[in-house]
Amino acid sequence: MTTAAERSPRTYQVRTYGCQMNVHDSERISGLLERAGYVRAGEVDDNPDVVVFNTCAVRENADNRLYGNLGHLRPVKDKHPGMQIAVGGCLAQKDRGDIVRKAPWVDVVFGTHNIGSLPVLLERARHNAAAEVEILESLDVFPSTLPTRRESTYAGWVSISVGCNNTCTFCIVPSLRGKEKDRRPGDILSEVRALVDEGVLEVTLLGQNVNSYGVEFGDRYAFGKLLRACGDIDGLERVRFTSPHPKDFTDDVIAAMAETPNVCHSLHMPLQSGSDDVLKAMRRSYRSERYLGIIEKVRAAMPDAAITTDIIVGFPGETEADFQRTLDVVREARFSSAFTFQYSKRPGTPAATMDGQLPKQVVQERYERLIATVEEITWAENKRLVGETVEVLVAVGEGRKDERTGRMSGRARDGRLVHFDAGSYAGSIRPGDIVHTTVTYAAPHHLNADGEPLSHRRTRAGDAAEAGRSPRTPGVLLGLPTVGAPAAAPAPTTGCAAH
Description:
The chain has helices spanning 4-7, 20-35, 62-79, 90-95, 98-102, 118-128, 173-177, 185-197, 222-230, 251-259, 276-282, 288-301, 320-333, 360-383, 402-405, 460-467; strands at 11-16, 39-40, 50-55, 84-89, 108-110, 132-134, 148-149, 155-159, 161-162, 181-182, 202-206, 238-242, 266-268, 306-313, 337-342, 389-394, 407-412, 417-421, 434-438, 441-442, 447-449, 455-457, 472-473. The chain is an alpha/beta fold.
């Protein structure tokens, strides 16, 4: 006989590290578990039945962070028989069986290519009372065919490709995510329409190298066509994409951005270094002149474009002259924001064994100078917007000080973070609504708008947020086990449907 405890739904919690791809993969993990009968644990639940770590392998301390967190969970699991721990993502793909060897209390290890196997692996581990490790070398199904529990009512990630065909010497991702696999355009647009039907206003097209989309089916202009096709979807107000590679950036994409009204005039394009010698050592197949030329064309077509980037400091062999060239490119590019990183050695990458590994103090000092230069420029760029009217898509959790300052927060069309005073609209503005307001103050990383909003538009996304609904895309779930209370028996049927 089934006990009450066995019939109650098992709870789960997903802990995510890394990039937007991982964040979106975690939405799929949540969707899979909920379709299989699990229930999301509450925010303060310290004892979920299943904890899933979706890991990243890009940073040097990724391993330490994972094993530290696993260590903290061991005594919790010891006190709660039946609790399961699963580890997935890039670090799981890389370390494989080593995870169970180092942390034998882990129940499941799954890779980047078989997210859809998680419910089966959890059930198998529970039945066999033994760890299950399954790492595939290539994709079994495209992840977007899996059910997804979206985290936002107003914005959604949509993968257009997975994997990467580049061979950057600092990056371990291609060996963990595999070669690029492109989705068919019709499948992508169907997912976008499904999100819009749920009330989503903004989508971000995702790919490890998003603008090389089409390489698998031989159309180098496929990405620009996809952007234009998104412009034909009624109700879709904002389209973004990340991250493009400069080597694949074509003029038709710039034209599509400029000519498609719902494509935002924001571009995140990694620079990594301004030194041609360092770019060559990184195996980045463009040079600073090419990079700056793209920015010049983007700004000629869209003078209001906000351009952001990624920069690595301290790559092996980087000289002071190399670093100065990076600062020169930063000053010339006039970025509105930059994600800056100190080079970290990753075992398994060519850069890890290169000569010229720099001392930590040299890298740190250059990093601090880069931060100062970037902030000087981003502050100056933001100050130019004081007095301008911006359209803000109201967000949740963007402003850590909002409660104390009485402001709300959201993103302008160009991606900038805006903190605004709700004024007479206080209490009626919801996440997902649209507000027009005037910028009154600029800081290096955000804008403030402290006057009365010029307008407030209620949206279907705001309705969903108010009702506590999250968009869910169904995907395909074939033959996976369910947990928790058994489903009610179906009503008797007659004719063919009964067979």
